[in-house]
Amino acid sequence: ETGVTQSPTHLIKTRGQQVTLRCSSQSGHNTVSWYQQALGQGPQFIFQYYREEENGRGNFPPRFSGLQFPNYSSELNVNALELDDSALYLCASSSQGTVNTEAFFGQGTRLTVV
Amino acid sequence: AQSVTQLGSHVSVSEGALVLLRCNYSSSVPPYLFWYVQYPNQGLQLLLKYTTGATLVKGINGFEAEFKKSETSFHLTKPSAHMSDAAEYFCAVRTNSGYSTLTFGKGTMLLVSP
C-alpha cells in the first residue's frame, strides 16, 4: 500500500455542477500528477504540479484546474461537469529531480456524473 | 511524442500456464518503461520498471519483462499463472520533456481459469 491517499472514494454529481477531489502525496514527494481513467481505458494525464505550480498539462480543457499546497497535497477541480467526465481519477506522487523517479498511485476517486 | 500499444485487450490463460502480455512503445528518446497492475476498484500498483542497465527486469509476484530496443518492445511474462494474477495490466512509458509523466497503453485484462 502506498502513502498516497485520495478523497472521497466515490462521488455522484449532476451535470453542470462543480467538483473538488483531494490527494495527499507520499511523504518526501514534491510532485503530484492527476490522471483520468475512463471505463475500459488507460489513464490519461491531466496535469502535474511541482512546487505549487502547474508545470505540465495534457489535452484537457481549462475547466479542469488544480492546486498544490505547501505540504505538497493537491486538489483537482472540475467545473461545469459533463457526462463524459465520469471516470476514475487517479493521483500519483513522485519526487521531481531524482533519477529513476517512480510514481506512486492512490486508490482513486470514482466520479459519476448524472 | 511517446505512445504505447498493448496488443490484446483480453488475454485468457489457465492456472499454471505461461503469461505473456505484449507492449510496444514509441519514443524519440531512450525510454523509461513500466508495467502496472490494477485490481478491480483499485489504483495502480507498480510491477516493474526499466530505466537503464540490464534489459531483463524482475518485478513483484514473479513477473518479469525484457526491454528489446530493436523491437521497441517491453513484453511482460510470468512462467506460471496464479488465480490471484487476474487483473488489468498497463504498460507505460515515461516522458521526459521538461517534466516527467506517464503515457499509458489501453490495458490488457488477464483472465485466469482453474
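qc> Chain B has a mean pLDDT of 92.
qc> done
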